[in-house]
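User: I'm writing a short report section on ligand binding and want a predicted complex to refer to. Could you take this sequence and S-adenosylmethionine and write out the structure as tokens? A short remark afterwards would be nice.
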Amino acid sequence: MVHESYRHEHDKGLMAELRWLRKIRTFWQTDLNRAIVDLADPQPGERGLDVGAGMGAATVLAARRGAHVVAVEPGGTMRLVARVRRLFNRSRQRITVEPGVAEDLPVAGRSTEVLWAGNAMHHWVDHGAAFAEFARVLAPGGRLVLVDEDYDDPTHPDHGEFAGHEAELTPVDVEAIAVAMVTLGLDAAGTHEMVAGVPAKVVRATKPD
Ligand SMILES: C[S@@+](CC[C@H](N)C(=O)[O-])C[C@H]1O[C@@H](n2cnc3c(N)ncnc32)[C@H](O)[C@@H]1O
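Assistant: Sure. The structure tokens for the complex follow:
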């Protein structure tokens, strides 16, 4: 069950669905998703969670490495694309596509060794609820990597088009996010760094054993 209250107006409705569908060729696979999966480094047999998975670009890469991945996505059209993609994917037995939001994840507590999200943090309506969920679902020793491209950095190639885009969504302050995660018992750090050749906001965290 997807809680609509955890979706920004920007992400809801027919226009939002069409906006994503129009970009299917751009987002089918991206260098950023490849880099995120490298950073998360899912291992064979590990249980992974792709939060705000979109059409499953990172999900399929992680499953190809042997991880069992739950792709969580609130958008019905994106889920449909991800499910069709799964059907034609060689790693489909290791992929599950589920409706859900970061703030209310459809998996059991301590069920996830590795969690990641790509260009999704600024879509989450309630960061506090999302991070509490991450602390809940991570297994002891589990890890997470969250990466959003930093379009507000003037060196980002798409700065001109997307600067200020967080204004209609959720501002992402990686240092504040790390502090919030530490209060939830995670070891966490927020950084600004280059990912896949573009400036990005990155949060890494681990759950102590
Ligand atoms: C920019 S897309 C990124 C998709 C995918 N991670 C990728 O890199 O291709 C952001 C995604 O977050 C999803 N989303 C919106 N609100 C969300 C929420 N509260 N929890 C989880 N995902 C959400 C959107 O439906 C959308 O698919």
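A remark for your report: Residues 29 and 57 are 5 Å apart (CA to CA). Residues 76-87 form the longest helix (12 residues).
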